[in-house]
Amino acid sequence: MTDSQIIREIKDGNVELFAELMNRYQRKLLSFIFHMLKSSQLELLAEDLCAETFFKAYRSLNTFREAEASFSTWLYTIARNTVLSELRKQRSVQVSLDDDYSIVPEAPREAAPEYALLRNEKVSLVRDAINRLPEKQRSALILREYDQLDYQEIANALGQTVSSVKSLLFRARASVKSQLEAYITEPGVEGMN
What we know:
Rna Polymerase Sigma Factor, Chain: A; disordered C terminus; 193 residues; Arc Repressor Mutant, subunit A; 65% helix; 0% strand; 2 domains
């Protein structure tokens, strides 16, 4: 069944089918929310905000108009607004710069430690560069690169035009590249790609 068919069935009273929509989008939505929260070190809230997003979507499903946007775009918009609302609430909470709650992925046992260390460092540098982007650029880049949405879906989710999204992505990529140039040209790191 397509999203549209499932939504029609849910609106006709078959509410159990909402679980199918959740199964379809939960992993990507959780990833999107996690990346939006990363810059504020609030990743632990990702699952709660994902659940809140689905709750809001379910509660508002009767207001969803397929002619205006696809279900996925509508869902990402709800998620984005939920995250932004949480970030506004959290602004008053001060996070100590001495506390390091970042999650460092474990290196595979068969990988040489120095390569794993360099890879983790590169991942961390890229993540930090993305997290320093302005909110709209960061959201556009995450939706495009991590969630693989097309330009129109990103435009709908962010309330922008397609040309604005392309501009946001261009500026975001240029900013990340310029932030990482010092590390890319370092001797010894370049050959480790």
